[in-house]
């Protein structure tokens, strides 16, 4: 279920697009200025609701991209079938008419899909910040825009070369010359497309990759497990999930990430694993860690932070303490529960704990953390089920608070949207849910 803000925004922007396309008039300087102002207001409104997180799901709406060889072969076939305008009895005139029309058709058949991609692939700026991070993590910084830009360059090239050769065809003096000019034009366009069409195939790969990304639902409260690698996060996701958690594969992760669901009194929650965080600076973090930070930064998540004080997870307790303090400070506004995991190992006589580190340099804070974790942490063992019931009830309590948070956030989004709408209305750009561009352009 989408929230009201989502629907309102969607309806508005669709209507806007339709009006823009429907009421195109060659613009005077003044008109262009007004039009730009409208666009800027729309862009700001879009960008601000984007920041607010009301519109994930862009990847699922990406258009199907046709492989470049298929675009080319279908365009060649369609262009060949174009006949000259009826009623031209002069052979030379008829043939040059045919040649120009066929070349024009070929150019359009090649350029139209490319234009569709330019128009339907979302501008990265307008993506939900979480999806924007995924685009960067998956495709590399700047690559998405680069490929889209190159596809558009190809469209421009096809258009200009097509027009140039169609004009040459239209000037042919004889049937033979028309045929030769047509063949030369077709060859040229075919050559360009064969050489540079690979960029369309790159776009196809991009669309496939992004479409395969796990879908997040911003309306469902989500519990996000965070901690160093091997501290027991996935094991906790399994015991907290009702039903079997799915494995989500983000394209840049080597391991799948568990995504489970918790149901309680008709309310559904999501619980998700994140790849572990290591003790290092942001610049040194790998994509798996960046994904964790993107989830925490951009999705309305409640945190279940897992601490393994046994010393057997591979990250020392003191390093875990450093990571914890940094993350806790960075995401202090999140609802939060701390868990000390693998507590069965603490009950054994000689746990692996404390064996690996020199504790003589511990300050009081670290010494305390080493023994019991952060204040209020729940001790849990997946092996012996110790603390599991307490954990479940605390998690449900927290997720119920998260429901309220999301509702408050949604109503503030709604208010903001209404404010933007009212401001556009007062400026005369909006009329009962649609942007009135005619009015804005003064051309009604
Ligand atoms: N003794 C013990 N081992 C555990 C417990 N929870 C997890 N483990 C083990 O710790 C290792 C890492 O667990 P996993 O859930 O994959 O950690 P993640 O990398 O944080 O997701 C696995 O070998 C688990 O079997 C626990 O409560 N007790
Ligand atoms: Mg795991």
Summarize the structure in short.
The chain has 444 residues and is α/β, with parallel strands linked by helices. It has helices at 4-22, 29-52, 68-80, 91-120, 129-139, 143-170, 175-196, 198-211, 233-240, 287-298, 317-330, 343-347, 364-372, 388-426, 437-441, and strands spanning 222-227, 246-248, 257-264, 267-273, 301-307, 336-340, 378-379, 430-431, 434-435.
Structural write-up:
The chain is an alpha/beta fold and 444 residues long. It folds into three domains: 1-9 and 22-49 and 413-444, no CATH class; 61-211, Up-down Bundle (Four Helix Bundle (Hemerythrin (Met), subunit A)); 222-386, P-loop containing nucleotide triphosphate hydrolases (Rossmann fold, 3-Layer(aba) Sandwich). Helix content is 57%, strand content 9%. The chain has 15 helices and nine strands. Strands 2-3-4-1-5-6-7 form a seven-stranded mixed beta sheet, with helices on both faces. Strands 8-9 form a two-stranded antiparallel ribbon. A hairpin with a 2-residue loop joins strand 8 (430-431) and strand 9 (434-435). Helix 5 (129-139) packs antiparallel against helix 10. The longest helix has 39 residues, at 388-426. It is elongated. The two termini are 38 Å apart. The model is unreliable at 1-32, 46-53 and 431-444 (pLDDT under 50). It binds guanosine-5'-diphosphate and magnesium ion. Magnesium ion is lined by residues 233-234, 273. The site of guanosine-5'-diphosphate has 16 residues, from helix 9 and helix 12. Keywords: GTP-binding, Nucleotide-binding. Residues 59-217 form the NOG1 N-terminal helical domain. It comes from Oldenlandia corymbosa var. corymbosa. GO terms for molecular function: GTP binding. InterPro entries: G_FEOB_dom, GTP-bd, NOG1_N, NOG1_Rossman_fold_dom, P-loop_NTPase.
